Amino acid sequence: MHLGVKLLMVSRQLPSRGHTFALLKPDITSNPIILKKVIERIEREGLSIVEGKRLRLTRDEAGKLYEEHKGKFFYNRLIAHVCSGPVIALKLTTANESLDDPVILWRKILGPSKLFKNWIESGNSESLRNSFSLSDTRNVGHGSDSIHSTERELKIFEPFDLVNDELGEKESIINRLIPDLKEMESDIMEGDNNNKVMD
């Protein structure tokens, strides 16, 4: 079910360097402050958002996305989680020719899916999953593992909503992905001011 939130398409013409599919899960989209940090990290690490949309997944869409996991012990829990709230589907590309392939780069930024086991083994405390995961299922997001899976997964979510905007690109991306961010930041600032008055 589409929630009708439009997302900026990067307006400058990017050379074709391939792309990847990313899905930000409800454990991240439900917290606008953390979601903003995740989007900023995606951009800071050299990925550009080409297309995307915010939506609520149906069980059918979730089943298509995770069809390779059908029958595994965690499948029903995974489907229930990604259908529990809004998700953000993104088509990403690399912003610089010298960077890794977008599939590899996004999975590197995202980090290993098995949170605790891989955190101990890899010591990769810089990944998004090691920073923000709550469990192996509530683990920030999903990333395609190949060009083939990228194409298959993008088709599940097409068409994406596109808005061209040459000015204030970063601000537009964040505002369209996180419509309630300004209100939450305002509430936080108001809370800080109230604390100062009470001190």
TrEMBL record:
Domain of life: Eukaryota
GO molecular function (one): nucleoside diphosphate kinase activity
Documented EC number(s): 2.7.4.6
Reaction equation(s) it catalyzes: a 2'-deoxyribonucleoside 5'-diphosphate + ATP = a 2'-deoxyribonucleoside 5'-triphosphate + ADP
Cofactor dependence: Mg(2+)
Domain Nucleoside diphosphate kinase-like per the UniProt entry, residue ranges: 17-164
Keyword set, alphabetical order: ATP-binding, Kinase, Magnesium, Metal-binding, Nucleotide-binding, Transferase
Protein family according to the UniProt entry: Belongs to the NDK family.
Name the UniProt record assigns to this protein: Nucleoside diphosphate kinase
